[in-house]
């Protein structure tokens, strides 16, 4: 079991030790980001701007222009709701070398309700332009994404979870940017998963279901022909995401179905657009929107 944040921070330390020139910026989010070990090792490389997300993003762009690789680490709902203009202009339009960690995305803040749920980050990120977008499913994938974005200058967004989760990948795992990753090869249906919902999809195997389970750690860039090839091999295409159905994974996959004139049955599982979520545990909210293993199992039985 591993928290994605622990994997990310360990990788930042590893990369700094290897010669990367990093700065990590937080917005009164030292505990949320779990930045402590990196800050202890490199206190001069951590900047806490306080509850001032817009300042954080603008300052990150400025520091990046000095030659450093800058990571921002704060709550995803506030990154997108408060800092959208700075993300668009200072990072994406200006192509600065800033990597944004969106913490506790989706229902990560559970009982705190709609003000703290981040259900539209992928939808917004896909429209900003010049922004690589990632959603790791486990700690090893998260670590590989961090290594990749450090090695490749330019803006990036990484959607982060806060649960401790089992590892889906082995020690030899290497990220292939843009490539869909088949976690289980089954028959009949293919399930495309956003981030850590891959774990829910894998649970249905123990329920007697046998879908092909696909993780999409890289939402942009994305090898659409590889995704289309997987869809052609199955009768039913399902997406599962802790995100609104408009603009997220369901939209990405449905656009490809339309573009390539595929006739597979399409079932999007996620949060309906045009409604606010409510306060509850993550497990209860996933159950409500049928984006847990039980919900997927019921869909596969149809």
Automatic annotation (TrEMBL):
<keyword id="KW-0786">Thiamine pyrophosphate</keyword>
<dbReference type="Pfam" id="PF02780">
    <property type="entry name" value="Transketolase_C"/>
</dbReference>
<dbReference type="Pfam" id="PF02779">
    <property type="entry name" value="Transket_pyr"/>
</dbReference>
<feature type="domain" description="Transketolase-like pyrimidine-binding">
    <location>
        <begin position="2"/>
        <end position="167"/>
    </location>
</feature>
<dbReference type="InterPro" id="IPR029061">
    <property type="entry name" value="THDP-binding"/>
</dbReference>
<dbReference type="InterPro" id="IPR033248">
    <property type="entry name" value="Transketolase_C"/>
</dbReference>
<comment type="similarity">
    <text>Belongs to the transketolase family.</text>
</comment>
<dbReference type="InterPro" id="IPR009014">
    <property type="entry name" value="Transketo_C/PFOR_II"/>
</dbReference>
<dbReference type="InterPro" id="IPR051157">
    <property type="entry name" value="PDH/Transketolase"/>
</dbReference>
<protein>
    <submittedName>
        <fullName>Transketolase C-terminal domain-containing protein</fullName>
    </submittedName>
</protein>
<dbReference type="InterPro" id="IPR005475">
    <property type="entry name" value="Transketolase-like_Pyr-bd"/>
</dbReference>
